Amino acid sequence: MTEDTRWARRPLSGYDVRLPVAEDAELTHVDPGTPGGEYLRRFWTPVAMTTQLGARPVPIRIFGEDLVIFRDGAGRIGLLHRHCAHRRASLEFGRIEERGIRCCYHGWHFDVDGTILETPGEPPTSKICGSICQPAYPVRELKGLVFAYMGPPGEIPAFPYLDSFDLPDHELIPYSIHSPCNWLQETENAIDPFHSVFLHGRVNGPQFPGLEHFVELPVVNYSRRDAGIVYSHARRVGDLVMLRFHDYLMPNLAQNGGMFQKLEKPKFFGRTSLTKWVVPVDNTNSRKFGWRHFNDKDEVLRQGKRDEVGWETVDFYGQTAHRSYEERQGNPGDWDVWVSQGPIAVHGREYLGKTDEGIAMLRRKLRRDIRAVAAGEKIAQVGGTPENPYPTYGGDTVLRVAKSNDDEALMRGLQQQVAEIYFAADGLKGEERSARIKADLKAKFPDSAG
């Protein structure tokens, strides 16, 4: 059959579109040895919340690997392959020691780096301790999240540190939510500004307080960066134009604008209310790890609820499975739409349009980087240190600008000008960077400074 049968071309033609189409394995499969899995393993990624680490080991699954994570008596965190190197018993049933963990089956004792400290049933002359290790991964703990590097030991990158990790007056509360679907269809939601118009606005009414104007179609601008994509979308309410900037940093980190806004006056370089990673559990499950940022300047309606942020919960609409099916069907949220695409969304069954520019851009970037890793080439990665953090842009700028005869072109130009001002301050840090951006915005748009 030569005719393309991926899509229906006439009404009532369901029969014609029946042949199976394989998922895009290069982008979606994450198991060890797969191109996508090898690429993802080149980055530090969150794997647990520190609140999970108590008196017992915790079994987790990341990138299709069964692992166990724990904090030993000395306060150190270990991330080991779940099954004991001796006879494959699960270390989730092990005993946490002052140093490391002990397998319940035959008492083998492992340090947090996988070193075998003791094999009590073996003779004193046994050389096992010096000859093998329990497979383990390096970890870092930061602000309530545990990060791991699961790639080649000789290629460990520096731990990335963003300026948004230490924004003035921001309180970061960690959270984590499971989705029974492939990581890519969940993370793509973060680079699709058009879904907000319909899912969060027009179809069932506004879902987010203060963002009722999101029912209007935005004017969108994308800026390619070495380690990801920065994009913005602009909407007008009267003489105010809201420019919302988003960070998408490879492979799976996103930051957006402020939650619970109120569009009533100009604002320069507001910062993010959300930092999040979508981490593959395996090919058909993902887990989001992130921080909700609480800050009155960037959440002027003050409707955020700290006590609703944590394990399997966050304080804004439609992000989890924990509503009745009737509620979810009657007013679906983000979780419902990315999960409803199936365990692995089949790209060959999609029909992309102009509004999917960001999706196409992300997939191209992922594919290039995946193939670069497979070819042994270096890829761009986020850097930064606490002393010199990596600059990010997620947040909102609101300008007072009169409407023009070609308002779409005006708003596109405003986004490009603001992005250039943001990028020009990349060499600065902290309050010096923020002050420079605000001063340059004030000089460029004096009608918004009053």
Description:
20% of the residues lie in helices and 24% in strands. By secondary structure, it is α+β, with helices and mostly antiparallel strands. The chain has 2 domains: 54-151, Rieske Iron-sulfur Protein (3-layer Sandwich), CATH 2.102.10.10; 163-448, Naphthalene 1,2-dioxygenase Alpha Subunit, Chain A, domain 1 (Alpha-Beta Complex). The strands form 4 sheets. Strands 12, 13, 14, 15, 16, 17, 18 and 19 form an 8-stranded antiparallel β-sheet that branches. It has a 4-stranded antiparallel β-sheet with strand order 2-3-4-9, with no helix packed on it. It has a 4-stranded antiparallel β-sheet with strand order 5-6-7-8. Strand 17 and strand 18 (285-294) form a beta hairpin. The longest helix is centred in the C-terminal third of the chain and has 18 residues, at 357-374. It starts with 24 loop residues before the first helix and ends in a 6-residue tail after the last helix. The relative contact order is 0.15.
